[in-house]
Amino acid sequence: MRQSTLTRLAATLLTALSLGAGLSACAPLLVGGAMAGGAMVVTDRRTSGAQLEDQGIELRANNRLREKFGERGHIEVTSYNRQVLLTGEVGSEQDKALAQQIVAGVDNVTGIVNELGVMGVTTLSQRSNDVFITGRVKASMVDARDMFSNAFKVVTTRGTVYLMGRVTQREAERATSITRNISGVQRVVLTLEIISEDELARLQPKQ
């Protein structure tokens, strides 16, 4: 692995670990941006309103699930453009259905992909490995010069990588190919919103 890749991987892992440590804190209002020439260049393809709604959805859903389940199970909520991905582990099919029902009642949720596993809760070591895989996927996307890595949200659970985002079919296929070649990836699940190349061109920042 090249030195540049290692540097990007380390930065990505630090970001992921920082986010994981601060789940109970308020999420930052600016997301999906990159610094260029001292100015913030927004690369997130959601509207600013959708980004704020996604943060609100995650916060409210996590609070409601915590109130209902407490320490029973491990549920992660990821919202992208109001579409919610549920990952983690619960003890029964009833709990899996209940978690979906609770999240469906959160304002602004337009769809749910329920990928909760009915099994014992994963260990800290397993979750750390998932964080490492996520970091490697994002670093590989950065290395791919034909990719906009910030167009994707990457979630990894038990070796399964979920790709979320608003992307073209070309970008979806390229990201899938990259992800499948990462060591430790067991499965790739696409929960993407496919847009046209013309729409992508309209979303690009004006030069």
Task: Please give a handful of descriptors for the protein shown.
207 residues; alpha/beta; four-stranded mixed β-sheet; three-stranded mixed β-sheet; disordered N terminus
Task: Give the topology, please.
Elements: H1 3-21, E1 33-36, E2 39-42, H2 48-69, E3 74-80, E4 83-90, H3 93-104, E5 111-114, E6 117-118, H4 124-143, E7 152-157, E8 160-167, H5 169-180, E9 187-194, H6 197-203
Parallel strand pairs: 4-5, 4-6, 8-9
Antiparallel strand pairs: 1-2, 3-4, 7-8
Q: In angstroms, what separates the terminal alpha carbons? A: 33 Å
Overall geometry comes to globular
How many distinct helices? 6
The topology string of helices and strands comes to HEEHEEHEEHEEHEH
Task: Write down the Rg.
Answer: 17 Å
Q: Overall pLDDT, averaged?
A: 84
Task: Characterize the structure shown.
This protein is of the alpha/beta class. The chain has one domain (1-207). 44% of the residues lie in helices and 25% in strands. The protein contains six helices and nine strands. It has helices at 3-21, 48-69, 93-104, 124-143, 169-180, 197-203, and strands at 33-36, 39-42, 74-80, 83-90, 111-114, 117-118, 152-157, 160-167, 187-194. Strands 3, 4, 5 and 6 form a four-stranded mixed beta sheet that branches. The protein has a three-stranded mixed beta sheet with strand order 7-8-9. Helix 1 packs across helix 4 (124-143). The chain is globular and about 45 Å long. The two termini are 33 Å apart.
